[in-house]
Amino acid sequence: MNWFSKALIFKVLSTVPGGAALYRHAQWKWTKSIVATPNWVGQKVDVGMSYLNWLLEHGYSLEKIRTMRHLDLGTGWHPTIPLLFSRIGLRDQVLADVNPLMTGDTFLDALAITNGLLGDESHPARKYLLDTSIPEKPPESELDKLLTRYEMAYHAPYFEWAATTGQQIDFVTCTQVLMHLERPILDGCFKLVHGILKPGGLFMVPVHLFDIYSNSDPHISVYNHLRYSRRFWKSVVSSDMMTFNRLKSPDYRSALEGAGFEIIEFHVDYGTEAELQALRSLEIHPEFLSKYTNKELSEKHLFFVARKP
Question: What CATH number is given to the structural domain containing 255?
Fold first, then answer.
C-alpha cells in the first residue's frame, strides 16, 4: 500500500468518532495484521531470547534472573515475551500499556503459539525452561484469571501505577515501541522508567530507526522519512493513531543521559550497501542534514541497555 495513502487514512480515522475502533476491526478481520501467527510470535520469542542471552552473558545467573521482577512496557495484544519468561521461571511480572489492548483470547492465542514453538526440541530456549513438556491449555479464559494463574499484573493505562509503585522493578523491556513517541514524551517515559527501577536495575530496548512505512510500501526507501520537514511530517503525516518520531541514536542517548541512566550497551546497525546507495541519491531535507552526520542518517536499528545507578 502506498505509504502516503496509509498515513492519510490514519489521519482521517483519528479525527472520526469511532475511527480507532473501525481500524482495529479492520486489522483483526480484514488485514489480519495484529492476529497472532507462528512467524510473528516467533519473532517476539527471539527478541525475548536476546534479552535473556544478554543477561546471561553479562554475569546474571539463570537462578538470579528467575528472582528478578520484570516489567514489559508496551506489551500490546499478545504477551509473548512475558510468557517466554514465565516458562523460564520468572514470577511476579508486570505488563503495561497506554491503552488496554490485551484480552483473554489474545493471551490464549499467544500462549498456545509460544508453547508450540518451545515444544520444538531444537529451540534454543528449551535448555532454560523449568519444564520442557508442553503445558495443557489452562481452563480459564478470562484475562484477569489468566494473569493470576501466570503471576502477572496488567496495567493499562499504567501511569497511576507507575506514579505510586516506587522502586520495585529489576529490569524493564520495551520492544519496538519507542519509535512511536515524540521526544518530549520519550523524555518523560525514560524518567518514569528510571523512577520505578531499583538501583542497579536495567532498561533493555530494541528500536527501529528506519522508515517503518517502508515495511508495507516496497516502492520507498528505508530512508524515505528523511525527505520531509518537521512541519510537514507533524501536520500531514503524524496522527493520534500513528506517530513515527524519526529520531536517531544521538536523541535516544541524550534522553537516557537526561533521565539519569548509565549506558551499558549502545549498538547501532546501519543500512546495506544497496540501501546506502539509495540514501546517497535521496534528497534529504536540510533539517536532517544540519542535525545529524551522514553515518547517523544511515542508521536502521538501535539496541541499548541502560542501568539506573
Answer: 3.40.50.150
Q: Are 86 and 94 in contact (CB under 8 A)?
A: no
Instruction: Assess if residue 27 is contained within a domain.
Output: no
What gap in Å lies between CA 288 and CA 223, rounded to an integer?
Answer: 11
- Domain count within the chain: 1
Q: Is the pTM of this model over 0.85?
A: yes
Asked whether residue 12 is assigned to any structural domain, the reply reads no
Any domain includes 103: yes
Indicate whether 273 belongs to any domain: yes
Q: Is the peptide bond before 157 cis (omega within 30 degrees of 0)?
A: yes
Contacts of 16 (CB under 8 A, 6+ apart): 22
| Residues spanned by the domain of 219 | 38-307
Give the tens place of pLDDT for each residue, 201-260. 999 999 999 999 999 999 999 999 999 999 999 999 999 888 999 999 999 999 999 999
